Automatic annotation (TrEMBL), chain A:
<dbReference type="GO" id="GO:0035615">
    <property type="term" value="F:clathrin adaptor activity"/>
</dbReference>
<comment type="function">
    <text>Component of the adaptor complexes which link clathrin to receptors in coated vesicles. Clathrin-associated protein complexes are believed to interact with the cytoplasmic tails of membrane proteins, leading to their selection and concentration.</text>
</comment>
<dbReference type="GO" id="GO:0006886">
    <property type="term" value="P:intracellular protein transport"/>
</dbReference>
<comment type="subunit">
    <text>Adaptor protein complex 2 (AP-2) is a heterotetramer composed of two large adaptins (alpha-type subunit APL3 and beta-type subunit APL1), a medium chain (mu-type subunit APM4) and a small adaptin (sigma-type subunit APS2).</text>
</comment>
<keyword id="KW-1003">Cell membrane</keyword>
<keyword id="KW-0472">Membrane</keyword>
<dbReference type="GO" id="GO:0030122">
    <property type="term" value="C:AP-2 adaptor complex"/>
</dbReference>
<feature type="domain" description="AP complex mu/sigma subunit">
    <location>
        <begin position="1"/>
        <end position="140"/>
    </location>
</feature>
<keyword id="KW-0813">Transport</keyword>
From TrEMBL, chain B:
<keyword id="KW-0653">Protein transport</keyword>
<dbReference type="InterPro" id="IPR008152">
    <property type="entry name" value="Clathrin_a/b/g-adaptin_app_Ig"/>
</dbReference>
<dbReference type="InterPro" id="IPR003164">
    <property type="entry name" value="Clathrin_a-adaptin_app_sub_C"/>
</dbReference>
<protein>
    <recommendedName>
        <fullName>AP-2 complex subunit alpha</fullName>
    </recommendedName>
</protein>
<keyword id="KW-0168">Coated pit</keyword>
<keyword id="KW-0813">Transport</keyword>
<comment type="similarity">
    <text>Belongs to the adaptor complexes large subunit family.</text>
</comment>
<feature type="binding site">
    <location>
        <position position="46"/>
    </location>
    <ligand>
        <name>a 1,2-diacyl-sn-glycero-3-phospho-(1D-myo-inositol-3,4,5-trisphosphate)</name>
    </ligand>
</feature>
<dbReference type="InterPro" id="IPR002553">
    <property type="entry name" value="Clathrin/coatomer_adapt-like_N"/>
</dbReference>
Amino acid sequence: IRFILVQNRQGKTRLEKWYSNYTEHERRRLKAEVHRTVASRDQKHQSNFVEFQNHRIVYRRYAGLFFCFCIDTNDNELSLLEAIHLFVEVLDAYHGNVCELDLVFNFYWVYAILDEMFLAGEIQETSKGVILARMDQLGALE
Amino acid sequence: MAPMKGLTVFIADLRKCRSQEDEERRVNKELANIRTKFKENSLNGYNRKKYVCKLIYMSLLGHEVNIGHKEAVDLVNSTKFSEKQIGYLAASLLIPEGSELMRAVVSSLRRDLYDTNECIVCLALCAATNVATREIAESLTEDVVMLLLAPSGSPFVKKKAALCLLRLLRRFPESVKAQQWAARVIPYMGHRDVGVTLAVTSLVTALAQQQGDEMRKASTFAVRRLRSLVLDGERVADHVYYGVPAPWLQVKLLRLLQYFEPGEQRPELLGILRRIIDESQEAPRELQQMNAQYAVLFEAINLGIHVDVDQGLMHESALLLGRFITSRETNIRFLGLETMAHLAACIDSLEPIKRYQGVIVQSLRDRDVSVRRRALDLLYSMCDVTSAKAIVAELLRHMAIADATLREEMALKVAILTEKFATEYAWYVDVMMRLVSLAGDHMGDEVWHRIVQVILGNEELQLYACRIALQTLRAPVCHESALKVSAYVLGEFGHLIANAPGCAPLDQLKALQARLPAASLPARAVALTAVAKFTNLFPEIKNLCLRLLDRFRGALDAELQQRACEYYALATVESESLLPTVFEEMPPYPERQSALMSRLLSRETDTEDQRTWVVGGRDINRSRSTRKPAEEDSSAVGGKQETIQPTATSATAVAVEAAAPTSLDEPPAQTPEEQERVAKSRKHYARLLWESDGILYDGAEVQVGMMAQYKPPAARIGLFLGNKSAAAICDISIQAESSDKSGDLVIQQATDQDAVPDSLMPLGQARVFFDVRCHRVFPTAPTLRISYTLAGAPTVLELQLPVTAAHFMDPVTISVADFFARWKQLGESSIGESQAVLKTPFLASDADAVQWLRNVAGGMGFALIQGADAVPDNIVAVGIATTEAAGRFGCLMRVEPKPSHSLTRITIRATNPTLAKAVATNISMIFDAR
């Protein structure tokens, strides 16, 4: 995974995580381009994969939020697509029916969950149970 | 961590802002507030955390935040977990990499990695991974390795340590000294915790790409784990995802195995793959389950292609994929097409795939551009000589309706396929002209440049191309690129059709002229050149041409005006020879890799993760897999690769000239570049006169290496032809023949070897052996003729093979007395003496000179007689040459270096004059080349 972006329909980025090195300027440009690429796609008849520069974006839309992973073209798209789903399930379980506002107000927790699931651009943990238990443990710390 | 009220209020405030300016104002107000708070020094931990959080939020919204760095470091150093957590978050988001404060963060990291609380260790590992500066890679790698390898330690620490290493490895491969610990992490792939196995497998996969075979052992672990997951039904309770056991781990393991040769694990692997494929036959109901299962399935097919592409398993997979590409799920269609392209890139027979050609062509019309792109890739990969016409025709048909983003790629691929599989010239020209007309706006200049190159390089094409060019000009619509090609072609070869009805010079000029008003500036420039060339080609219309040029002398565009003025001036100068010289026909283009291919490949290279295959036909992938050994071979032959790009014709001429041992006089005036090539080529030849293997020819397109084994009177010569260009070379033929028909030297291709391949991909290598028998002493070396076609342009390389009579010599040791007796005897009979006084190729002071001379004598097959000569540096040597029909011939040699004059006298006496001469010639060439 090169980067993870969670954006709403207006293109506001709610979560960004960069696993490759980009300058501030590049990041800004990438965010805009990803939004343009993904939001314009038809949800019903089109795949969850789209070519993006020399890479590929695997994305899924949940309510008004687009979860986008930018990956290498030879990565396994379906496994990452399901990783997105797992991430959303975890967020959901953690916040109890997550919505965009939860991501806004609890951004620091979202980053903590992200660090438990993905690290260095790779999937780290794939068990919902393990992640949630861990988050509870960390939350209990002062 | 309890929510921070101040932060929540601030975020809510910002959300209420109606406009960007409102938000800006609110942020600035808060920044000012925070600045004063930070100055007060009496901040408690909670408040510090709160303010830093606000700063993070602002920066996430895209506002510039450059305060709070010091406070972030303070938080990192706090003893409270929640404050540390925010501190590290701020460090990774706010503090720039080069900042002095980053150093402070790194030293906290070092301390926290050894904290007794594993949660803090994990926090530090995450932060180290997210920040991943060079300093961390250099100073903390060892500690992280320790954490991963420690016998105790929680799975959380191990997972994070493995991925932290991965990030550092990717970013600073030279700083982490991976070879020191790479092998030791492999056993952790057997960790019972799925998360740890997953993380370590990711790390090992990256290592396998860098270290290659050293990581081989990992495949045992991977196969074992897969077997337990797939066949033995390992219980991974927490990691079952919608009924699929640990799908992510399965995918990772299957991918890792694609980087190794399967070896003896093949049967077991095939068993696992079969189970995965069988299990997916029944379609799952739920979307999540289907995705997880198919993620594993597609990866299994990819591995299957790697393990055993031509087994029945893959034919079954082809059927399965055939079903997928008509699936109702767009994702599945997408992946079905992509995986099929992988299969097409590797499978021997394309038949199982061709069955679906119709469906694939349909997919070019899919609603999803991603799917359309995959269909294009697949068609490109599955194209071969038999299907080329159909596929190219389909692609051309779709060109008109394809989206702009896809059109360029489509055009490139059509151009490449057409060139690669063209069997008729007319077809090539027709397709390309249609292509530029259809897609001209969407492709770079490479395509029309390439067409011109190919036409210039193939005489057979030119006549037809002219006809089509003229037609194109007269067509109601003529695309600018088509105009450029047509103008160029007529300018060069218009005379070929000048006698045909309706194609007279005047007609050609008119057709061209009619296009000018509407043409773009660059097209007009090309057209002007064509007109200028007409002045030379067709004296009968020179005046008309001049009038046209004259009109453009007043053009507003500087480029056009300059061209017109210059051409006009050239054409009006009173000189018989000037015009024909300047406007001579262009020489064929230097045969390089078609720019199209490089352009296409450049799209695929940008990935850290090496691909195991590329989109394209089987040959291109085959050559990829053989690339490594080929590289080793060429370095074994002692190859140094230099890059000179001469034209194809001059390369040929130079090679013949340079390698001929008889033409030692200075070659006629040449460019410095050519001189360098001559010198180099001569050097290669000379070196092979006393060394058994090395490079024989090193050109811009191909390299020829040679390996010789002499068992006088027989010898076996191995030749290696390497393709250095970036395109495939084909129609390869390698022939060797003796210089005369006397039968003194018999040279023929060895019978016990594979046939020379017909074509060679870039970096590919072909090998051919020749059996040589020396019947009698022969005067001249045999000739090697290599011919090949690169991108439609045939090239013939004629080289002299460094196989001379002197090569069939074995050393013999005789006593000093015997030597001088024979020496005298031969001198008196004067059967064969050759003497040469050569300029010593060293400085007088060079201490290695004598040793070099000895090595040369030894390498040529002489035995050195010690102590024969009073002067220690003189060399006295004996060899005996063996022939099949004429018996054996003794050969004595004396070498007397005279350092004071920097000359060396060489005297050879042999029982055969031709042999003596051959030895003398060889030595002088060796001296010359040094």
